[in-house]
């Protein structure tokens, strides 16, 4: 795509002009936006870029390893892997309110990020994968009181606190353009085409109290669901699909044993920008196949349900 090739060259020139001989710190989440920003910055300024990957222990199955392997081993980008799963889980201990979870994770994330960035020698600039829709959404058009549906987890406030200037190379782009730029930069399709994943991670897909045990159950079930979606050739048609582990246990029967285990909800939506969404109309054979696999393969789940709520009135995530 020659347009993206031209955009890429222009973006690299702009980064070099802004940063000069300075150093840049970039938060890497493994999501499309921060991944594309990191690779673009690395092309522009090489090893004056350091990436910090805060591993909250609330990522999807194998996700942390994939991020570290790709950026450190494949791209040779200096990468700090802040493996802080236990700290996040203990901070979340006993918290079941969705907003309290989001705020706890957001605050700890900033603390960890700041400490690790300092350890890595600090920087003059903080890079963020802010997109055009993020820029728009933070503006209030009518000046009236705005309602916070969910506190979004991002690193807002960090640049001022760390006395750094912001670099936002994706500020003019929409999601599909970021994906095109990622392909132009040679990022693997498994990263470029990946469904969005929220900053607070699996914590907001476990209504009620979060624990390592629950996160492990959810990770396994989610991986099976996504694998079946890929096998059915539906991954790219769906905007986002994931499993939610409910804090409800129900009675079941396995062999001739009574079971009393968790309910798992499956969610899949189509959307253009995440602002509105329709639930995805899977055929029943597909849903039955996924349910059977999950119940047979994941200990702790004995019932699977499908969420048929669109947005509005439902949000995409459950919390
Ligand atoms: P909702 O659940 O509000 O989500 O319909 C819309 C889109 O935003 C994602 N999402 C987040 N992304 N930090 C993020 O980076 C967050 O705190 C967050 N909360 C929700 C959600 O996955 C969906 O794609």
Explained architecture:
It is a single chain. Helices cover about 40% and strands about 20% of the residues. It is of the alpha/beta class. The chain has 2 domains: about 1-190, Rossmann fold, CATH 3.40.50; about 210-305, GMP Synthetase, Chain A, domain 3 (2-Layer Sandwich). Helix 10 packs antiparallel against helix 11 (about 285-295). The chain is globular. The two termini are about 40 Å apart. This is GMP synthase [glutamine-hydrolyzing]. Pathway: Purine metabolism; GMP biosynthesis; GMP from XMP (L-Gln route): step 1/1.
CATH class of the largest domain: Alpha Beta
Write out the CATH superfamily name of the largest domain: HUPs
**Average pLDDT rating:** 93
Helix content percent band: 40-55%
**What structural class do helix, strand and pairing data support?**
alpha/beta
Total beta strands: 9
Going across the biggest sheet, name each strand in turn.
3-2-1-4-5
Strand percent estimate: 15-25%
Largest sheet: 5 strands, parallel
Subunit structure: Homodimer.
Domain GMPS ATP-PPase: 2-194
Keywords: ATP-binding, Glutamine amidotransferase, GMP biosynthesis, Ligase, Nucleotide-binding, Purine biosynthesis
Protein name: GMP synthase [glutamine-hydrolyzing]
